[in-house]
Specification:
- The chain starts with a strand and ends with a strand.
- 38% of the residues lie in helices and 24% in strands.
- It is an alpha+beta fold and 363 residues long.
- The strands form two sheets. Strands 1, 2, 3, 4, 5, 6, 7 and 12 form an eight-stranded mixed β-sheet that branches. It has a four-stranded antiparallel β-sheet with strand order 9-10-8-11.
- The chain has ten helices and twelve strands.
- The longest helix is centred in the middle third of the chain and has 21 residues.
Length: 363
Amino acid sequence: MRKITSLAPGRTCLFGDHQDYLGLPVIACAIDRNIKLTAEQNDSGKFVLNMIDIDEVRIINIDATFEILEPRDYFASSLRVLRRYGCIPNVGYDITVTGDIPINSGTSSSSALLMAWIRFLVAAFGVDREVTPEFISKVGYESEVLEHGEPGGMMDHFSIGVGNVVYINTKEPFSYNIIRTDLKGLITGVSGVPKETIGLIGEIKGNALMSIGIVKQNFPDFDLNTSEIGDIDRYRNCLPDRLIPFFEAALKNYHYTKEALKEFEKPVLDLKKIGVLMNQHHEVLRDLLKITVPRIDDMINAALRAGAYGAKIVGSGGGGSIVVIADPEKENLVIEAILKAGALEAYAVNVDPGARIIENIQI
């Protein structure tokens, strides 16, 4: 009998929200809040998934092929994807799922669960590919986004699968680069306001792509990937008023992400400079894309008043969480201020090394 334990961290987006589906780069990091999946072999021919935190049990037949997928059923879609890579379940497992990533908060609890599940399946049944963090990340993206036709990008899967602080270049040919293995003074604040992912991403993505399409029709040589922040005024006149903010947001967020990358690549990290860029990025998300809610704004203002260098909303928006960069000496003051501003939770986080198997033994 085998026992396998896999672990996958949550993630926070430092720079590049609402950028990866435009083929623009993202800087994200895995954080040490995680989903843990503990699996013990059984002889029932079934996966019995006991999700303790949400008081739910899911039973899946090991030979289920899921010709038809239910919306957002990532357990099923990943089994379907992994079969194509030669991962064929031949024995059942009793599986316990626990975690300390807040659900529906913008720190990727659902992607972490998916990545822990994929990591377990690959460890249990093998694949016909070399098992690398990149492979695990790719399977996660295929399972969550491509199989379900969802509007998200690759940020969640690569930041969780590869771990550390990672620069993700989402345009073809896709690439990623670990730019740091640590980041001091990192704080997460959870608003308790559930985020609105699928609809919000779909709407903003549609408007952003439409604005870029119109600019390209009028200026065929326009290339988003070589655009500069100064290009906004040059092109805005060809856009209808309602689309200008989406175009402006794309160029500004891209600029702040590139500037942040330059800072991250320096031998000594200047947290104040990262904080300033984070604040500028948040202003775009708040004022142009309008994805914040009052409680998020209150939490961010409180963090900055308490001496944080920078703070921004994380992820798709409409609620969820914030990420904060602070002087490590002032972390407790900043956390206290965020909680007083109405946050459900606020805590310091460390950079995590990514999805992994922590136990694989015969019992």
